């Protein structure tokens, strides 16, 4: 089985190194091939998603991805910015279903910025649509405003759009995920304002007829943001679009203690997938050896479970992560008084030792 390893930029390189260390210590042996992506792709080959990197991603059985981006590329034309690499991979490989589980490990209830009783026992799943919405909608661009009170002024515009089949396919994924969990699905939209959201909601209601065992509810995204900090445990599975899911999953990360704890799986219709932490390249801490590698290590576990059919190996990693948390190991982002504060590599070593 072949894994394409795309570390990317910033802390991406540091955290992927730890996940590889853990994967290499398992009983299974995987073929791994590394390629540059993001800013690293631009520096090496003049493009954030070089053809050779995309070819490797297509040919591999699964992709382990770090993160892309750096402030130094902010003035590049958009097509050459590092972020286009992850957007391009999601689109080219039709990775439309993004799973972001937010679990607050018992050892980390004190690490969340919320009161322990709000987050203790939290186990929710955000299913984010990943191929559509305003991130990919056309037309988009810059122009002179054609009308309105600022007619003639410089204007930027994007298009939020979803088609019925696009919503249907993510709805089925979300309902099936809910069937395997608490059988409650909350569809998050802004149907009180947006046509895109009204279609989203109508399709969810329609698909729900095929899943009578799952209780479907609807919530506007502004209220969902509020409920996520007020009563996060009231959710089981949340399904939402690309933009709302991006924002709500960062918010949900803080319920678990840190964004450095939130893994993700981005799957196509055959469960081929790209696995990455939910966070970015964290330029503010890159190169310091202090990033939390656990979201990436847990993403590698998701890869074993969803794409490589190695559920026992996935469980070994997940249990090892729990053991190191139990033993008090903490990177700075999840540190609490009296913990054993460690850096990125020491955290990786601790997981390795706990396998
Ligand atoms: N999938 C991807 O590759 C993503 C890339 N980005 C890119 O990353 C760059 C930085 O974006 P930001 O908005 O700052 O988001 P970010 O997620 O990189 O960082 C946000 C905050 O969380 C902290 N953080 C993130 N991961 C951490 C970890 N593993 N351990 C400890 N602390 C961690 C950072 O230090 C920072 O204070 C930008 O270029 C952005 O476009 C952002 C999100 C996802
Ligand atoms: C480049 C962004 C769309 C990536 C991001 O923020 C995410 O997927 O969470
Ligand atoms: Mg994001």
Q: Could you characterize the architecture of this molecule?
A:
The protein has 2 domains: 185 residues, Isopropylmalate Dehydrogenase (3-Layer(aba) Sandwich), CATH 3.40.718.10; 120 residues, Rossmann fold, CATH 3.40.50. Helices cover 38% and strands 18% of the residues. It contains 12 helices and 14 strands. Strands 2-1-3-12-11-4-5-10-8-9 form a 10-stranded mixed β-sheet, sandwiched between helices. The chain has a two-stranded antiparallel sheet with strand order 6-7. A hairpin with a 5-residue loop joins strand 11 and strand 12. The radius of gyration is 20 Å and the shape is globular. The chain starts with a strand and ends with a helix. The mean pLDDT is 97. The structure holds 1,4-dihydronicotinamide adenine dinucleotide (NAI), 2-OXO-4-methylpentanoic acid and magnesium ion. Magnesium ion binds next to helix 9. The site of 1,4-dihydronicotinamide adenine dinucleotide (NAI) has 23 residues, from helix 1 and helix 4.
């Amino acid at each position: 089985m072949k894994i394409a390893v795309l570390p990317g930029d910033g802390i991406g390189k540091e955290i992927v190194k730890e996940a590889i260390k853990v994967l290499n210590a398992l009983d299974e042996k995987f073929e791994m091939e590394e390629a540059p992506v993001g800013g690293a792709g631009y520096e090496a080959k003049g493009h954030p998603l070089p053809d050779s990197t995309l070819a490797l991603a297509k040919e591999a059985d699964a992709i382990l991805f770090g993160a892309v981006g750096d402030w130094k590329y902010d003035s590049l034309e958009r097509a050459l910015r590092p972020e286009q690499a992850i957007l391009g991979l999601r689109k080219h490989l039709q990775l439309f279903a993004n799973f972001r589980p937010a679990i607050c490990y018992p050892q980390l209830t004190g690490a969340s910025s919320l009161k322990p009783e709000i987050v203790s026992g939290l186990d929710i799943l955000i299913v984010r649509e990943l191929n559509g919405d305003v991130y990919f909608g056309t037309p988009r661009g810059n122009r002179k405003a054609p009308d309105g009170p600022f007619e003639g002024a410089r204007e930027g515009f994007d298009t939020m759009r979803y088609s019925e089949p696009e919503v249907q396919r993510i709805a089925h994924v979300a309902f099936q995920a809910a069937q395997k969990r608490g059988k409650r699905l909350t569809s998050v939209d802004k149907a009180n304002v947006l046509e895109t959201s009204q279609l989203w909601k109508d399709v969810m209601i329609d698909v729900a007829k095929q899943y009578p065992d799952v209780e479907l509810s609807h919530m506007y995204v502004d209220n969902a943001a509020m409920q996520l900090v007020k009563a996060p445990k009231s959710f089981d599975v949340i399904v939402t679009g690309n933009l709302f899911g991006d924002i709500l999953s960062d918010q949900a990360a803080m319920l678990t203690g840190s964004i450095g704890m939130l893994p993700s799986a981005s799957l196509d219709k055959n469960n081929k997938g790209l696995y990455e932490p939910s966070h970015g390249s964290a330029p503010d801490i890159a190169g310091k050896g202090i990033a939390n590698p656990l979201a990436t290590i847990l993403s590698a576990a998701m890869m074993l479970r969803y794409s490589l059919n190695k559920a026992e190996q996935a469980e070994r990693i997940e249990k090892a992560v729990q053991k190191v948390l139990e033993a008090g190991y903490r990177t700075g982002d999840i540190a609490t008084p009296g913990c054993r504060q460690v850096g990125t590599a020491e955290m990786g070593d601790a997981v390795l030792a706990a396998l």
